[in-house]
# Entry
Amino acid sequence: MARLVPHAETTAANLARVLRLHTVPSTEWEPRQRAVAARRLLEELGVRCDESAALHDLKGFLLSSPRGSELVVSRELNDEERLEVYAHLIAHALLGPDGPELALAARFEYVPGRAPGERPQHELREEVLADAVARAILAGRLEAAPRLIYCRDLGPGRGRFSRAVLRGIHLGSLALYRRSRSYQKLRSLPVVTAFTERVHSFLGSAA
Amino acid sequence: MSDRDEVQVARWSAIKSRVGASLRELRLNEAGTNPSRSQARLAGELEELGYHVTQSMVSRYEQGLLDAPLTLERMVGWALCCEALSSRAFKELLALAGYYLPWKTADLLAFDDLLRSYRQMSLADQVVVRARLLWHILGIESSDSDAEGDV
# Structure
């Protein structure tokens, strides 16, 4: 059985780290370097990447089965757009279902304005959330998203009470993040990220 | 003719009418809202997947008249080209041909979701996705190890 991407949490964290390391503002080769680094990393982590597909309404898609995970991207995209598709699809992999792993799973990225009109609500909700998580990955700051998105295991905690409080806070943050774009912006501010990291460290570290 | 070939031919003879009828049903999509695919278009789409199946072969396979066994690869490719394909129909078709699709309810639902998204795409996108899907689906294992690759 397969998940959308093997070890999605590690993949997303490493992708964000690589993008942070390859950020060289105001250089014309930066997008190319970031796109190449992202592709290399994904392939090293077991995700096949094909950037040569002749797609029309799709920017790219992710298919996963016991045969592996593959990311297919339109050949029409420039480096920056390709990178966005990678980040978006990895965000979908992070947000994928918690339930049983599927024999065949897919996510599709549409060219703006060309997505089908009738999409199920759960798909649209995941899309909004994936937008926010992809922004965090592209900024090289995965921690700008709620921790439960990229790390399901919250650690041992100082005790049962602090663990329960910590879990409650993270669940609340995740619920707000799903519903509110304002909270998504607030949560991505460095000062808020630093504060939540401190709270997590305080409550989450073992006694 | 080798023993293996004889078994293969005998097996195909036993199922070819039912497989043909099932594939025809998938292509015609009588109950669906989308138009059915013509035999010519299906042949063209199979060609795009890399399988040489002419319109005449499509017709004769559907009528159960062709003695050459339809390979698993072509059968899956054929099914993926059809508007009426559903996870249930797919599982039944493969079971008919002796292949067990080890999909649970969640897998079947996810595949139906995937097919719904796939049918809403442009033809160009469908062609790319279909080729990839074929590769992933063909990882299924035969329910009869002796018959692997026979049908």
Remarks:
- Residues 147-204 of chain A form one domain.
